[in-house]
Amino acid sequence: MESKKQRNQKYNNLTDSENPCLDEEALKISSDNDIETNQEIYSKLTEDVKHTQQWKEYNEAQTKEKLIFYKLLDELLNIVPLRKYTFGRPRKSLRDMIFCCMIKIYSNTSSRRIISDLELAKRAGYIRDVPHFNTLLNYFDDSGMRIILDYLIGLSALPLKQVEKFFAIDSSGFGTGRFDRWVDVRNDFGARARKGYMKAHICCGVKTNIVTSLQAYKSQEVLLEIQQCLKH
User: Fold this and answer.
1) pLDDT at site 74
2) Please, what is the angle between helix 94-107 and helix 114-123, to 10°?
3) 141 or 42: which carries more pLDDT confidence?
4) What residues does each domain of the chain span?
5) What integer pLDDT is reported at residue 96 of this predicted model?
6) By CB atoms within 10 Å of each CB, which of 47, 74, 193, 202 scores lowest?
């Protein structure tokens, strides 16, 4: 859908190059049908169109967002391989634990409160077991999680490969604790720069905003980067 600025640009290009009314000789040569056709084109290009919200599609997407997220996440995690059991206490399924971690992040709630949602996910057949809330937190530090998550981010963007042609790269910080805010660190590189935050660099598509790649850094690495920038 074209914006008003794009339509005005087309109108200006058309009047500069193809408008027979600007040249008297061209006006005599051109026929009345051509003039009427050009007038119709001008009226369409200069028409002030109001773009309203597509409420039917918007309401359907909002009311089914969580169900669609569960289904897409379940299909995406089917490629996660099973860990080989060697010795000791059997570990939780990595596929199920990634699903539980993603649900916690999506719901933006504590590990204790998310257990009820995980119980519902188990009844729906998305996971086999509901982990303890401390186990859920421990898997956020699992070394194998980052490798698989990086691969899953790129895999989730593949369906839009034929749509996206241009990409943008940007970064932002976010707090990891209750009293640590990235805005405080960004506005003051000195005493208020705490260690309770991380910085993420992402590459996303311009048209659909799909994230194709992501790199996250801990606060200590960010502080070193800031200090180097200040020196230069």
Assistant:
1) 92
2) 130
3) 141
4) 4-41, 64-79+91-150, 167-231
5) 92
6) 47
